[in-house]
Known about the structure:
A hairpin with a 6-residue loop joins β6 (120-125) and β7. The chain is an alpha+beta fold and 175 residues long. The chain is 25% helix and 25% strand. The strands form two sheets. It has a six-stranded antiparallel sheet with strand order 4-5-9-8-7-6, with no helix packed on it. Strands 1-10-2-3 form a four-stranded mixed sheet, with no helix packed on it. Zinc ion binds at residues 88, 90-91, 93, 137, 139-140, 142.
Amino acid sequence: xxxxxxxxxxxxxxxxxxxxxxxxxxxxxxxxxxxxxxxxxxxxxxxxxxxxxxxxxxxxxxxxxxxxxxxxxxxxxxxxxxxxxxxxxxxxxxxxxxxxxxxxxxxxxxxxxxxxxxxxxxxxxxxxxxxxxxxxxxxxxxxxxxxxxxxxxxxxxxxxxxxxxxxxxxxxxxx
Length: 175
Ligand SMILES: [Zn+2]
């Protein structure tokens, strides 16, 4: 009986350890002081080129439609950030600014509108067994997140662009 208990404790400790091990791979939002150049046209790269150009976290989100952990490091950073602009980490296109930012409490960076409408595309996404509207970067096709509408937020649009901060680049300063 004693051995059993001991084993159980050991198992619990091991699963905890593997959990916190996973958490150590922290997705963060890149910050830079200069606004990146706006891409002139579509930005096209091969999968191998994207993998080389991006951090593993950016690659996973932008090119593999990954989703960062909610209420993670990125969300904490986002809440602390002041004025600034949010660009695509893949191609530098301006996507959002602090003017459209709001705290939805959902655990991911949220905006009620894009800063530059032509840089953001939406399309119906039926993966994960539900119908959602996917948000992508119009310039490089990178996956950004999803947009939800009519949830009752007291913002000018009542839309929630629920965006993976790990796929964004933040440039502090007047947007
Ligand atoms: Zn892009």
